[in-house]
Amino acid sequence: MEPLLALMADWWWIAPAAAGAGTVGWIGVRSTRRRALPAGASTTDRATRVWANRPMSKSAARRLELDATLLDLQTARHAVTRGRAEVKIADAEVMRAQAERAASRASSDVVGAARARLAAAQRELRAASAEIRARRAAVRAAKAMLPAIRAGSAPLPVARLFAEHDAILQRWMAYETDPALAIDFPTMSDSRSPLTAEFLRAQERAQWLRPSSTAARLEPADFLAYRDAVRALHHAFERAERAARHGRGDRPEAEPAEAWGWMTSEWAEQAQRALTWSVENMGRAASRSWTERQAKRARKNDPNA
After folding, report:
1. Furthest-apart CA atoms within the chain: distance in Å
2. 163, 167, 254, 273: which has the highest count of C-beta atoms within 10 A?
């Protein structure tokens, strides 16, 4: 890790330079970060910080992403089960409303509202079913990566998240340290810009959830929380940067479809990396096997052996 990024990882670094100035400054308030949770932090976040001080076995560290994706898949399956129940309830409400209208005890507006709730429940169920397919793909990718992680040709899951987190910070730091970028895109270092403020809040949460080291003990749920925080940070930075480069730094926009597309792309890239590592490992194994067979054959044919 670069010295600057190492310092950023250890010291909390975002604060206004002066009251009303609006420019992001640098203040080391490490003790404050240790004592206080960011706004919106949950009880799970508190548990994460407690677990972070305990060591983790090598086997658990290697399997962490696989265990986390399995937990993610289980959560998605529960969401589908709840969605199916919601659809059944909404369907029953439609039939009840229709019966009430037939008996002249309810208006057509009540039936329309019940049908709208049924349509909403069906949309939620379709979305939950699609998410299951995506999370199954993530499980397959994590399984494919596991041999490469064990062989040392792929980084540990936490180390990879560290690299992704640091890469985002490095991109943002360019706007803080490069005078030309600071002049051309002032909103990227202006905490009064809504999108920049959103990015800073996302960084605060990601920094809080970041483990103390790659050897720190994490439960699968803790890994998922940090992974999702890094993804949210990446998305917030992309939005802020895109708006700054198009002169829209003061207008936040909701982009759920783009966020879903980015997550799908991330899973696809992860699967491709897993496939590449698997092919490379199989190639190395085949090469070693061929070399060993040639050596055995040479020893067998050598009369002095």
Report:
1. 105
2. 273
Average pLDDT, integer, range 232-239: 96
Considering Cα of 22, then 242, then 164, then 180, what sign does the dihedral take?
negative
Confidence of residue 106 (pLDDT cuts 50, 70, 90): confident
What proportion of the chain, given as a percentage, has pLDDT over 70?
A: 63
Give which of 225, 242, 265 is closest to 171, Cα–Cα: 242
Tokens of 23: 């420019």
Domain membership flag for residue 274: no
User: Does 149 reside within a domain?
Assistant: no
Q: How far, in Å, CA of 248 to CA of 239, rounded?
A: 10
HSE of 200, CA atoms in CB hemisphere, 13 A: 21
Calculate what percentage of the chain has a pLDDT beyond 90: 46
Using DSSP's 3-state secondary structure scheme, residue 24 falls into strand
Cα 93 from Cα 132, distance rounded (Å): 27
The token pair at 103 is: 């008996």
What is residue 110's predicted lDDT score, i.e. its pLDDT? 87
Q: Is residue 127 part of a domain?
A: no
Determine the Cα–Cα distance for residues 251 and 265; give it in Å rounded to an integer: 26
Torsion angle (degrees, nearest 10) of CA 220, 223, 228, 234: -160
> 243 lies in which domain range?
1-31+155-253
User: Which is more confident, 274 or 135?
Assistant: 135
Nearest to 24 by CA among 199, 170, 189: 189
Alpha-carbon gap, residue 51 to 209, rounded angstroms? 11
Distance CA 153, CA 142 (A): 14
CA dihedral 68, 139, 79, 228 (to 10 degrees): 50
User: 86-90, 176-180, 203-207, 247-251: which has the minimum mean pLDDT?
Assistant: 247-251
